[in-house]
Design a protein that fits this description.
This is NADH dehydrogenase. The protein is α+β, with helices and mostly antiparallel strands and 221 residues long. The protein has one domain: NADH Oxidase, CATH 3.40.109. The protein is built from 8 helices and 4 strands; from the N terminus they run ααβαααβαβαβα. It has helices at 3-9, 23-33, 52-67, 88-102, 110-118, 140-159, 174-181, 212-215; strands at 46-51, 128-135, 163-167, 187-196. Strands 1-2-4-3 form a 4-stranded antiparallel beta sheet, with helices on both faces. It binds flavin mononucleotide. The site of flavin mononucleotide (FMN) has 12 residues, from strand 3.
Length: 221
């Protein structure tokens, strides 16, 4: 698979088959992704990979918290600005509409929307998930390094025939994730990434992007 194909075929997949992923595949991908660039080569990512019983236990414990109505842990970072201005606000609503339309869920159907959100805590059925942490001392530039690293991981997983869903949602239950992976003190959980083979009947939503001219300006005279 060439890079264009990997980029084009990567989407946030939210329905995985439970088929296990060979450990060697994950090791191959994560070894290759370590070549990702980072400012001053700090490599500020700290990654934990969960599969099998530890992942099942994390899913179970989180589902229990959700079932109890637990609103989650004190947030360690702000996922989005509190007032999302234009054009970001419209892009967010459009993405949500496209996603729920693809699932056949109407705007009024709150229960189904909530169930779709709750599927985060099951990693959408994925047999593996990685959890990416960063040192509390790191600044915005190092958070950007994490993004580059994670995109590299996701594209390499495409090359292995696998799909992913990055999930900031896990930061809501970061203490439960920490109980599972036991990170050293001083690390903040950025996100989880569910990893697996796409379930055969998964819905193929393709979320639009802004036209190039909205986000890219060529200054070439
Ligand atoms: C850093 C990051 C965090 C995300 N967190 C979540 C999440 O918690 N749950 C979820 O279902 N999707 C999550 N997504 C997926 C986005 O909703 C998705 O990438 C976006 O809508 C574009 O769709 P596409 O990736 O399918 O093209 C996240 C994506 C990124 C990059």
């Amino acid at each position: 698979m060439d890079v264009y194909e990997a980029v084009a075929s990567r989407r946030a997949v939210r329905r995985f088959s439970g088929d296990p992923i060979p450990r060697e595949t994950l090791e191959r991908v994560l070894s290759a992704a370590a070549r990702s660039p980072s400012g001053a080569n700090l490599q500020p990512w700290h990654v934990y990979v969960l599969t099998g019983a530890p992942l099942a236990e994390l899913k179970k414990r989180t589902a229990e918290r959700v079932a109890e109505g637990d609103p989650g842990d004190e947030r360690e970072y702000q996922m989005y600005p509190p007032e999302l201005k234009s054009p970001y606000r419209e892009r967010r609503s459009a993405a949500a509409e496209q996603r729920y339309a693809a699932l056949g869920i109407s705007r009024e159907d709150r229960r189904s929307r909530e169930a779709a959100v709750a599927a985060n805590w099951d990693c959408f059925g994925a047999p593996a998930a990685l959890f990416c942490y960063i040192d509390r001392d790191m600044g915005q530039a190092q958070w950007a390094d994490l993004g580059m690293y994670l995109q590299t991981v996701m594209l390499l997983l495409r090359a292995e025939g696998l799909h992913t869903c990055p999930q900031m949602a896990w930061s809501v239950y970061c203490r439960t994730v920490a109980d599972a992976v036991l990170p050293p003190p001083g690390l903040i959980l950025f996100c989880g990434v569910s990893i697996g083979f796409e379930a055969p009947a998964a819905c193929h939503d393709r979320i639009d992007r802004a036209p190039l001219a909205e986000t890219v300006t060529f200054v070439d005279g």
